[in-house]
Amino acid sequence: MANSYNNKVVLASGEVLIDLTGDTADAAHVLNGYTLHDKSGAPVTGTCTYDSDTSDDTAAVGEILSGKTAHARGALLTGTMPNNGAQTDNISTKTQEVIIAQGYHDGSGKVSILADEQAKLIPSNIREGITILGVEGTMSGSEGVVAQARSVTPKFTQQVISPEDGYTHLSQVTVYAITVTYSDNSAGGKTVTIGAA
What we know:
Blueprint: E1 8-10, E2 16-19, E3 35-37, E4 43-45, E5 69-72, E6 75-78, E7 89-91, E8 111-113, H1 115-118, E9 131-132, E10 135-136, E11 147-152, E12 169-175, E13 180-184, E14 190-194
Parallel strand pairs: 7-8, 11-12
Antiparallel strand pairs: 1-2, 3-4, 5-6, 9-10, 13-14
């Protein structure tokens, strides 16, 4: 025997107490587990799993991790954002730039100065009074310097005075004075000798 349901209750006076005939609710539009009666009067249990209004959501597929799903504006969205995991890189030159790829990063990536370059950033390699990346220099500029003082005798030809082997520079150069001597000569005058010992 087929089930018979009442979907309209009318008093003898003509007053309508209940009228379900115009109702439009159905199982797909009622939250899952909730019950109602449809327009035929039959009991219905909702099957809709939507539990929030997503009409005002602003998320886009590019903002959702690739392969993950979400709902926004009443639609199912599948993410396209790349999963970059941990991005790591090293800086080896002063002007090097590290490009951060668009997408998701898991927070464990890092960018650091190359170990060989870090090893050079020590106080003795930096001029005193200069701080580079938090390392204050102590180099005075005189480290390894061995100065030499030299003396030379002037000549009428060009001379180049350089430090001898074992010295890094000249601290002082002494140029002897040019000697000038006068002596009587047989002609009754004076003979001038320049540069003679």
